[in-house]
Design goal:
By secondary structure, the protein is an alpha/beta fold. The protein is about 45% helix and about 15% strand. Strand 1, helix 1 and strand 2 form a beta-alpha-beta unit. The radius of gyration is 19 Å and the shape is globular. Bound molecules: 1,4-dihydronicotinamide adenine dinucleotide and oxaloacetate ion (OAA).
């Protein structure tokens, strides 16, 4: 029995994400939780003739939704409007994510938890701190979904150089906001980076780091990326399930994790940077994180991007941590 719960399932991301996950035979029960309209979305999806059962759970039924879940995906919360940063969402989304994490503690303490709600750089530490407080923290099972940064990088790179297939994976490290998003383009084939002028490389890097803003601006007050995020979220969730349930080996995705998920691999990085969380390529295994891949040798250009990312990332992490440790 593989029960996957989507928290925020009736939202802009939640609906298409639920639709994509409904297509997977790895899932036997898709439980849709939202404070509004969960029943309607569930009734609609439940008519699709794939294997999983679909149930809807409204405002008062969080515990019922989360009971014995295998995997919990969290796109609950408010999205940005033009002029806002992801950090501006902290005020509302921090409490939403904390309450959902408390629900996980009560109902499915061994679940894999996949966080989409922004600001991811802070909401993942919030989930981890709630779990630490209750003595159930397993860093191999909590993930910040930064896959959209990888998806965008692949797409934008292929637009700059049509020789590069849009399915080519780009390693993106750091975090999920502005300067903390660090694409390692020097690892791409066909001498990709060397073929670009400094201006072209700057423009491409900026487009990847601020891709979210393009969508926020185009939607003009009606929210942020939902469809591309649902695609990225489904890709991540299904890769994890393929490894955990399907036993597939060698599956790798960039994801924002607590570095204790692989203490040996990350000890010297942690000591050098003082960071407890970082997005990096992770290989999945039956326990979730099987290993965190070593940070590849980076170019001087990428080292500067990393140096710019570290202070902001550190501030985002401590904001999330103190939200839990300094509350009564
Ligand atoms: N990690 C990433 O790459 C990305 C993250 N996001 C983030 O995802 C979040 C959701 O975005 P959208 O789906 O566009 O927003 P939305 O407003 O369309 O949907 C959010 C849903 O969450 C529900 N919700 C609110 N409070 C809840 C609670 N306490 N429990 C359960 N459900 C609750 C709402 O009723 C709504 O249906 C935002 O924080 C956004 O910034 C968006 C795009 C990419
Ligand atoms: O930009 C936003 O607010 C939503 C998001 O995280 C993204 O599209 O990468």
């Amino acid at each position: 029995m593989v029960k996957v719960v989507i928290c925020g399932a009736a939202g802009g991301i939640g609906q298409p994400l639920s639709l994509l996950l409904k297509q997977s035979d790895l899932i036997s029960h898709l439980a849709l939780y939202d404070v509004v309209n969960a029943a309607g979305v569930a009734a609609d999806l439940s008519h699709i003739n794939t294997k999983s059962k679909v149930t809807g759970h409204g405002k008062e039924s969080m515990d019922e939704a989360l009971k014995n879940a295998h995997t919990v995906v969290i796109p609950a919360g408010v999205p940005r409007k033009p002029g806002m940063t992801r950090d501006d969402l902290f005020k509302i989304n921090a409490g939403i994510v904390r309450d959902l994490a408390e629900g996980v503690v009560r109902n499915c303490p061994n679940a894999f938890v996949l966080v989409i709600s922004n600001p991811v750089n802070s909401t993942v530490p919030i989930v981890c701190e709630v779990f630490k407080k209750h003595g159930i923290f397993n860093p191999k099972r909590v993930f910040g979904i930064s896959t959209l940064d990888v998806v965008r990088s692949s797409r934008f790179v292929s637009e700059v150089n049509p020789k590069i297939d849009p399915a080519t994976r780009v390693t993106v490290v750091g975090g999920h906001s502005g300067v903390t998003i660090v694409p390692l383009l020097s690892k791409l084939p066909h001498g990709f980076v060397d073929s670009l002028s400094k201006e072209q490389l700057d423009a491409l890097t900026h487009r990847i780091q601020y891709g979210g803003d393009e969508v926020v601006k185009a939607k003009d007050g009606a929210g942020s990326a939902t469809l591309s995020m649902a695609y990225a979220g489904a890709r991540f969730t299904l890769a994890l399930l393929d490894a955990v349930i399907g036993g597939k080996q060698g599956l790798i995705e960039s994801t924002y994790v607590n570095l204790d998920a692989d203490p040996q691999a990350t000890a010297s990085f942690k000591e050098k940077t003082g960071l407890e969380y970082f997005a990096q390529d992770v290989e999945f295994g039956p326990e979730g994180v099987s290993r965190i891949l070593p940070l590849p040798t980076v170019s001087a250009y990428e080292q500067t991007l990393l140096d710019n990312a570290f202070p902001e990332l550190k501030a985002n992490i401590s904001k999330g941590v103190s939200f839990i440790t300094e509350s009564a």
